[in-house]
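LAB NOTEBOOK - FOLDING QUEUE
OPERATOR: T.R.
BATCH SIZE: 2
PURPOSE: Compare the predicted structure-token outputs for two unrelated chains run back to back under identical settings.
PRIORITY: normal
REVIEWER: second-year student, initials M.K.

ITEM 1
FIELD SEQUENCE / FIELD STRUCTURE:
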Amino acid sequence: MAKPKKPRRRRGARISDQAPAHVAELQYAVPLAIPTYWTPEQAIAVFELIDDLRDQIWSIYHTDLQQMIRLQRQPAPTDPLELDDDLPF
């Protein structure tokens, strides 16, 4: 019995450019519907889970997250060539 051929990589393509077959079938985003029938106990359990997850992510990535937040909140640099030349004086 012959072995199935491996798919050939494109010349110059990186391995990370090629999504695994199971990923190619997935949507880019999964809509997240929040059920409206949870009991208060179920809702608080999910809320606490998300809160704990947030804390864990922060404990690992806090420095990177702070840097990203700082960069996102910085005003865009102004290009002196785009400034208005019609000054009132």
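ITEM 2
FIELD SEQUENCE / FIELD STRUCTURE:
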Amino acid sequence: MKKAERASRAAEEAREAAEAALADAERKLVEAQDYLDEVKAKPGSAGGALWWIDRELHEAKAYLPSSKGGYKKAK
């Protein structure tokens, strides 16, 4: 019985850690998008590099749940 309780506790801790990691990733994604928009607004920015960063952020959203701002990739 104790083994099952320990496993249950470990699973609960893992779930909480995963939720915290997801919230942190969402926050960092929003920060990165805001910073990218700020840099794009400045004159003389490198268009190709900004396009690449924008594309990387777009791809990162594919791994977020759609309820959290992500999208489903077309197969």
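REVIEWER COMMENT (ITEM 2): The chain has one domain: 2-68.
FOLLOW-UP: none requested
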